[in-house]
Design brief:
about 140 residues, Metal Binding Protein, Guanine Nucleotide Exchange Factor, Chain A, seven-stranded mixed β-sheet, three-stranded antiparallel β-sheet, 2 helices, 10 strands, binds zinc ion
């Protein structure tokens, strides 16, 4: 899917139990794979996030959505029923990141880069193609 098609498509997603469903009506950033210790602890391994403008994200039900402030710089949204990690929101809010694994195909996305690579776990190497950076 080229950029123009992605910008006009509506992408949907949900947590594992389906209590939280959402749709994005706007452009999505390609996926950043984050190796920081926060993402690794919260996601069992690395975090993989796309992102959109806050105004483009429409969450259908927030009843089970809870937020964990993982640092002064960000909070993380997850489902309190099934435990799925769904969102990462910087402070101050400039955009919202969405767990790539929560999206329904087709997303039209690809992995853009590995971030916080210096914080990666010692049990694996980053061996696939996208560039590695320290930015978030
Ligand atoms: Zn759930």
């Amino acid at each position: 899917m080229d950029d123009q098609k992605r910008k006009s498509a509506v992408v949907t997603g949900s947590c594992l139990c389906g209590s939280i469903r959402f749709r994005v009506r706007g452009p999505l950033r390609d996926v950043l794979v984050c190796h920081c210790v926060f993402c690794r602890r919260m996601n069992t391994h690395v975090g993989a996030y796309t992102a959109c403008a806050v105004s483009d994200l429409e969450i259908e039900s927030t009843r089970t959505l809870r937020w964990h402030r993982s640092s002064p710089r960000a909070r993380r949204g997850f489902c309190s029923k099934c435990g799925s990690v769904l969102f990462w929101e910087p402070t101050p809010v400039t955009h919202i990141s969405i767990a790539a694994g929560s999206l329904n195909a087709p997303t039209g996305l690809k992995i853009e880069a590995h971030v916080c690579a210096a914080q990666k776990g010692d049990y694996y190497e980053i061996t696939n193609g996208p560039p590695q950076t320290q930015r978030i």
